[in-house]
Each structure stands twice: as C-alpha cells, then as structure tokens.
Amino acid sequence: MQNVKGTFDYRGEEQRLRNRIRSVLEDRFALYDFEPMETAIVNERSLLASKYAGGDEILKEMYTLSDQGGRELGLRYDLTVPFAKFVAGSPGLELPFKRYEIGKVFRDGPVKRGRLREFVQCDADIAGINGPEAEAELMQLAADVFRELGIAIVIKWNNRRFLGELLGRLGVGEAWMPSVMLTLDKLEKIGATGVEQELADKGLEPDVYGPVVRLIEEELPDFEELVTLYGLSDKEGTAEVRRLGSLLEGTGLNGICKFDPFLSRGLSFYTGTVYECFIADGSFGSSLASGGRYDAIIGKLAGKEQFNCPAVGLSFGLDSILECCRGRGLELGMEPVWLVPIGDTMIETLRAASMLRDAGIRAKLAPSGRKLKRTLAAASAEGARYVVLVGEKEAAAGQMKLKDMRAGEEMTAPLQQLVCMLEKTVTKRK
C-alpha cells in the first residue's frame, strides 16, 4: 500500500499550490504565443535510446517495458525527444513552430529533495529559428515566470560549441569531448578534486586532463579574457556567445544572467546555448528550469541530416519549483465559503451554493446534522473566513446569515445581497 520510491500523491493545499504554479506557467506560455501540445508517454525504446536522444547517462535511468506484441518500449524521460520526433515526422509543419507541453516524465535515478522518479515537466520549445533571439525570448520567459512566483533567480548559461572550442585548446580530443563536458557539468557538486578524479577514472591521461583541472582550480577569467587567453576570437562558438550576450544586455536580462563556461547540461543532444535557472540565494541546490539549443536532433531523427531544423527549448521542473514556493505566501485562490444548513434547509442551502458558484466563488457544503459549534470549529481550523448559516427562520423570510470568522461579525440579508458583497471581498478561485 506504499507508493513506489520517488513517486508521491498530492492533495489539498499542496495540490492547489501545484495547480497555481501550473496556472502561472500556462498563462505565461500563452502570453509568449506558444501553442499547447500533448505527446505520447510511451515511446519506442529505439527512439529514446538513439544516439541522437539523451545520451548514455540518461539511458541508464530510462524505464523500459515491452507490450504483448513483444515490442520494446520505454517511458519518456523528458518532453524534448517526443517533440523532436513530432517535428521530424511532420514535413509540412509551418516554421517557426512554438509549442508548450506540461506532462509527466520518468527517470529511474537517485531520489532527493526536488528530484523524483515520476515528475512533471513544463516545456516551451521553438523550432525553426537559427538566431539567438529564440534563446533570449525563452530566458525572458523564465524571468517572467519566476517574477510572478516571487522567486529571485539567477540564470547560468553557456554555449557547448564554445566549451568544445575551449577544451580543444586545452588538448582534449574530439572523441573525449562529450565525456569531459559531462564531468565538468558536475563541477559545483564535486569540486575540482572530484572532476580530476572522475576524468582519471574515465581513462584520460594526466597530460590531457591536467590543463582542464588547472583552469578550473584558478580564479575563473571572464568570457573575453578566456577568448584572448586561448585564441578563440575567430571561433563560431565565441561569436554565438557574443550575439546572445548582446541581446541579454540590451533587454536588461544580464542582471540575472551569469555566464558559466563549464556549464554543459547532461543531455548530449545540445549543440549550442545551454542554461539553467537557480534560486538566487542558493537555498535550493537543484535547478528550477533548464534547457538549450538542439539543432541536429530533428534532422537526424528524420533520417535527413541535411534537413536543417534548428530548435531550442526551456523546461520548468514543477516539483522543484514547488519546493521553493512552500511558505512563500503564493496566492492560491480563496478558501471556500462554508454553507451550513440548520434544520430542514438543505434545499435552500444547495440553491445558495449554486448561486455562489455561478458568481465564481468557491462554496463548501457542511455536513448536515452536525452541531453548529463543531462545524464552526472545523471551518475555523481550515482557515475559512466566511460562513453562511441557513436557518429555517431566515430561509422562510428569504434571508441568510453571513458570519465573518476573523472579524467576529454577523449580518443577515437576502442571499443575492450577500453574494454581491462576497464578490467584492473575496478572491475568486483560480
């Protein structure tokens, strides 16, 4: 009767908080003109395991299964690969194409605060735009979402092409690039010593990983200093970083954006810009949102590598955001107005509940036959401010009694008058 490790059930205030976060995300996705979409949870294992998809690290965490026909299947571990599959299989799709999707994904990985095995991702993707304006728009989107949620963030970003060029200057061969990037991405978690040990364990020679370790052990130069120091001024990755950096500065995003030359993200399909959003005060270690550019995957999945379909995406982790929103006083919508039948007034009580709901006010019907003192205590314990008492005498006169639990005040009036008053004083349910 226990949940599988890394999965949870949500109810009450916690689920209302999740719904509120989701509502903020959906509102912002719509404002940025992203089209809603839903992709399949179950996919061919060969798609999810292809060399164009998540890479070796993520494949270790993939849930696999087979159906009655003996087909090898897997549960999606993100929303990007199914989206790329959709675009690759839709040759007539008008580009650029912007979509968002909110859905569950599954990873059989370590469980910790904010990181589960069954969790919700909220993705926004843009297919068909080459320029850095797509990344800038998604970073604007992230800033807007977290501003609305009252969470101060920092957006760390890099360019994998630039990182590859830098590693090349440090003596890392092309074959080792993905593995070294994966290790460098863990720098903040395992430190320079951990990076050195992991690279050695992977089989790199000391003369190869030595320059990398020495660089991360030193006080990190800024981007332009790195470009000058390692002769990267004429490289494509350098140009991409400069173009995006100019947009971030011009839109005022540079105040929350921090360039990190060792950020690479764990998924191997990223080809250019990558970014991760963290809570600014460092009180939560995991990222709240992340993404990047993946220009090659769609064409490769379509079996047409010459088919150029640039794409970039941003994924919000609802469960991680939930952890950071606890206790922040995020508006969840009104607590319900309680309706309490006293005596034989259930018909009038149900009519009153219907009128409140028609006005967009959340209404809760109290059980009949319970002592009034006990009912009022239960309403108070749930934080309800208003209770409508439907007594036989008042109902016969076409009136009801409204009790303000916080102010300790009561008034008797026709229901329509009470509804009009409540419309002005309560926050309607989101």
Q: Helical percent range?
A: 40-55%
Which runs of at least 5 residues are low in confidence (pLDDT < 50)? none
How many runs of DSSP E, i.e. beta strands? 16
Class from secondary-structure proportions: alpha+beta
Topology, element by element:
Layout: H1 12-31, E1 35-36, E2 42-44, H2 45-48, H3 56-59, E3 64-66, E4 72-75, H4 80-88, E5 97-106, E6 118-127, H5 133-148, E7 153-159, H6 160-169, H7 177-184, H8 187-201, H9 206-217, H10 223-229, H11 236-250, E8 257-259, E9 273-279, E10 289-293, H12 297-301, E11 311-317, H13 318-325, E12 337-342, H14 346-358, E13 363-365, H15 372-381, E14 386-391, H16 392-396, E15 399-404, E16 409-414, H17 415-425
Parallel strand pairs: 1-5, 7-8, 12-13, 12-14
Antiparallel strand pairs: 2-4, 3-4, 5-6, 6-11, 7-9, 9-10, 10-11, 14-15, 15-16
Helix pairs in contact: 1-5, 1-13, 6-11, 7-8, 8-9
Notes on the structure:
It contains 17 helices and 16 strands. The chain is α+β, with helices and mostly antiparallel strands. The radius of gyration is 27 Å and the shape is elongated. An 8-stranded mixed beta sheet has the order 1-5-6-11-10-9-7-8, sandwiched between helices. The longest helix is centred in the N-terminal third of the chain and has 20 residues, at 12-31. The two termini are 33 Å apart.
